[in-house]
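Handout, page 2. Input:
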Amino acid sequence: MKKAITLLNVLLLTLFTNHAKGENTAIKYYSKNKETFQLQDMSKNQALYVTLKGKSKYSVIWIQIYYKGNKEDLFIETKTNGEFSQKYLMSKGKGEYQFKIFANDGKSSRYRGVCHFSINNTKELPKDLVLDAKIKYFGLQKKFFSLAPFKDKQASFLTLKGESKYKYIMMKVKYKNKVSSINFSPDKRFHYKYILSKGKGEYHFSFFGSNGKYSRYTGICSFKVFNSKEINSNDKIFNINSKIIQYIAGTLGKKIGRGECWDAAQSALELYGAEWDGSFVYGKKVDWKKDKIIPGDIIQFRSVVFRMQKNGFTSVKYYGQPDHTAIVYKVHKRGVYTLAHQNVEGKRIMLKGLINLNHKFSGWIQFYRPRAGLIKVK
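Output:
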């Protein structure tokens, strides 16, 4: 099957020789596919947006969109009467966009090529926030989680307002093939602002819900927006270190989550809407040898060995077998910190401990500066 599609792709690419001098070219159908699949006249399309509207005897439509050598996939499910409608934002800039359309009858995994066309986008992107397609909910998920229609006109921020029956929400954001994650516990009625902090371009959002923190998450909905403004990466709005320290101070001597070292960082990050990868990258990387370390920074240790000599004796201490996570509680001087962490010294409660990185003998250490991604609106 993959070989067949690859060969078909090569064939289709050779057919893209009639480029438009104006806005678009005619739709070219293969064989008798116009009898089973038909798109409306593409001449009605406006610049920036392409309206993909028509009727099909196929249940699933797969659209491959090419722009300057990069490919994007778009899937559309037809209605019971065979009709479909989808707007596509040509957000990557001016130039030619090539569309190749495949269809599937739902009875097999095989897709067949039905038509192709190209459109030349001649307009610049608008100066404010551009919202692409409407929110797509999966199945009946809108009964359990719903977002209000977007009304944002200010770039750099996206308002997320709605209702939820889920106790826990995972929001994944894809930007230039990198995925970050924000976990939060919404009220029944919630109101947040998400910071479009990564810069200009397309942001893809996917939401998942669960009623148990460590239970399986269910897909809820997805959408994408385009941000046309840069934001100052050093803006104070990102700083949540002081909040993390305030939270950690109240947990000393107590167990967080399962008592794992990682759970302390996870709990603090989720509490204040931090954006991270949900694994071991807790924010922006900082170098303790060059940058200023502040309380609330998070350290990841991997198979680290410390060797200290005193009065002719050598003592050895291990951090991470292979991994250990800790939070900087106090800075004494460069390389010398009081840490707050758990699952140390055989105890699964939050403890404080002094560490001197200048005594590191082997292993890997990385500091991270947590960054706010989601702000709760009071």
